[in-house]
Amino acid sequence: MHRRIIVPSALAASLLLAIPASAADFVPGAPGIGDSYYPTSGNGGYDVSHYDLRLKYQPATDLLEGTATIVATTKQNLSRFNLDIGLAVSEVRVNGRLAKFATSGAHELEVTPATPLEKNKAVSIVVRYAGKPSEVKIDGWTAWARTPDGGVAAQEPDSAAWWFPSNDHPLDKATFDVSVSVPDGTQAISNGVLQSQSSRLGWTRFNWRSNKPQATYLATLAVGKFDITTDRTANGLPVINAYSKDLGDNAGAARASVERTTEVAEWLESVFGPYPFNSLGGYVPNVTSGFALETQTRPFYSPRQFANGANASVVVHELAHQWYGDSVSVRDWKDIWVNEGFARYSQWLWSEKEGEGTAQELADYVYATRSADDPFWTVKPGDPGAENQFHIAVYDRGALALQALRNEIGDEDFFAILKGWPQRFAYGNARVADFVRYAEQVSGKPLAGLFDTWLYEPSKPAASTAAPAASTAAQAGPAARAAAPRAAERSKPVQPKSWKKIAATNTVHETDRPGAHRHDAH
């Protein structure tokens, strides 16, 4: 018989392991994730890895009923944690046990589990809820749009709180399964791949899966009567486009634009590298808004985007976001330039490819047509402020910064950066400062001064982005070299042929959220 002898120090250690943390060691998670512009967005104390949403929606009444299962990991010892949701909650379970809950603020659901949650532990949260999303106002606005035959959730920087509970900030991305039951004859569109579809007792259920990390505001839901087109790319990715049956005069132009999704994505792969997600597509519901949004894998387009005819440029913009904004997302909403400056510049590159004006010509035109006293130059794209997050300067001056970078370091390094950045931060988050450092690493040049001039100085730079550097001009073709003169040296700037189509994506600013200028092509 062997007896195990435990020395005093070992005994003390074993007892320590057996004693759970005291109640004093468990504290509530923060009601916000720490964003500079939106302090109450997101929540602290945990990280979500997956959302499973099982929904039922009645278009006639706008009633949405849902059960959300959230898979997460605790990041601290939690006595309580928050979720963001605007609909009425009837029950919450944490790790299978009923939890207490209360509401506070505009969208905070405070959940107190039956037993405190230890740090670095897996946790499952089940929330049952219901309500009419169109009747929910948060800070005076709504991200849910009623349509004649259903409803749509699509907005920036927030839309999740109108249809599911979440940790609502781009810093906490997760994969998604979205299962929606709607009356027969109605469809439900969401992100990713349609896994299955089945009908029973007058209801049809659509099961969608988005298998790569996705920010909550990029999750979308559209219920209505759609014409749906399906295809596959050369690489086998499913392409799903959907159009409301009642788009009227905009129907043809919408299709002529969105049906070019595969072509545009293939071209963008040549600029930004491999497409990062499991499907492609877009949808055009019958809404009255004027904006478009880069909802992951399936951008949302308002019919008004096509009021003046087909416009592939807006498709370029939203698909460019799949790399810049969706795969690589902001760490903080003040970093919006890492989304919008690049999506706008992609429109300039498309113009260059189509022979409708080089990026340099577009840069010269923007610079020349904005006088020094134009308030445009007082907005800092690198940190525009919440009230100017979607200001035109974030787009156009943001693109000017990229043309200035291109001219400074030459095409070889510039395009290596455009392709390398989405790989470097794939499925993650990044700041403006991260991009500056990355550009310096690739080019081997100090670039802080250049970015400060174009992204942070609240005044018009003394000179345009300038003609391409000699090495760049030597690599460029005759057309690009001929297009190099500075706008400042021209008496009258020449409007590039593509300008009107590009400008059509930013002429209408949504102002439904007080204090925020929502840009047309988010």
Short overview:
This protein is an alpha+beta fold and 522 residues long. The chain has 13 helices and 23 strands.
Describe the structure.
Residues 509-522 have a biased composition (Basic and acidic residues). Among the domains are: 28-220, Immunoglobulin-like (Sandwich), CATH 2.60.40.1730; 333-462 and 495-505, Neutral Protease, domain 2, CATH 1.10.390. By secondary structure, it is α+β, with helices and mostly antiparallel strands. Helices cover 26% and strands 26% of the residues. It contains 13 helices and 23 strands. Residues 1-19, 469-490 and 507-520 have low confidence and may be disordered. It has helices spanning 8-18, 251-258, 261-272, 312-320, 337-354, 359-369, 392-409, 411-424, 432-443, 448-456, 470-475, 478-482, 499-503; strands at residues 27-28, 46-58, 63-74, 78-84, 88-94, 97-98, 100-104, 108-112, 122-131, 144-147, 150-153, 174-183, 187-189, 193-200, 203-214, 221-224, 226-232, 238-244, 280-284, 292-293, 300-301, 329-330, 429-430. The protein is globular and about 70 Å long.
